[in-house]
Amino acid sequence: FICLSVLQMSYSRYRSRSRSVDSSDVENPGNNLFVTGLSSRLTDRDLEKHFSTEGEVIDASIVLDPWTRESRGFGFVTMATLKEAERCIKYLDRSVLEGRVITVEKILLTAAG
User: Fold this and answer.
1) Is RNA-binding tagged as a keyword (predicted)?
2) How far is CA 37 from the centre of its chain?
3) Residue 76 — φ and ψ, nearest 5°?
4) What is the pLDDT of residue 27?
5) 88 near 77, Cβ under 8 Å?
6) In 3D, which of 97, 96, 85 has the Cα closest to residue 54?
7) d(Cα 36, Cα 46) in Å, to the nearest integer?
8) Range 4-15+29-106 has CATH code 3.30.70.330
9) Is-contact 48 57, C-beta < 8 A?
10) Residue 109 has pLDDT above 80, yes or no
11) Does the pLDDT at position 4 exceed 90?
12) pLDDT in tens, 58-108
């Protein structure tokens, strides 16, 4: 329980760096995407390159296991605009990247607590 609370606090602190102090009502404006089905060989740069075909990528990151540093098979992409994110969902969902079919969907961000 204590470890989980510390993890949640760390995650909340990380997520709120670019937001106002009170982020209790922050939700995804629609430009943050959740991507699954990623190859373990894929890099953040590969993910960014794939999504840049549909617009400007603000951030692309693959989630790594904290102990092994290997990909957990999913990641997050932030597009510059809602329109670009919607294009990614429309055209990149179920696309093939590094030989694997990926899924792309909008994520909802809500404050933990």
Assistant:
1) yes
2) 13
3) -135, 140
4) 64
5) yes
6) 85
7) 14
8) yes
9) yes
10) no
11) no
12) 999 999 999 999 999 999 999 999 999 999 999 999 999 999 999 999 987
H/E stretch holding 91? helix 82-92
User: What letter represents residue 92's amino acid?
Assistant: L
- Does residue 102 or residue 113 have the better pLDDT? 102
74 bridge partner residues: 36
Residue range 22-30: average pLDDT? 59
Token pair recorded at residue 62: 């693959």
Q: In terms of Cα–Cα distance, which of 111, 96, 3, 110 is closest to 50?
A: 96
- Residue 24: the pLDDT is 42
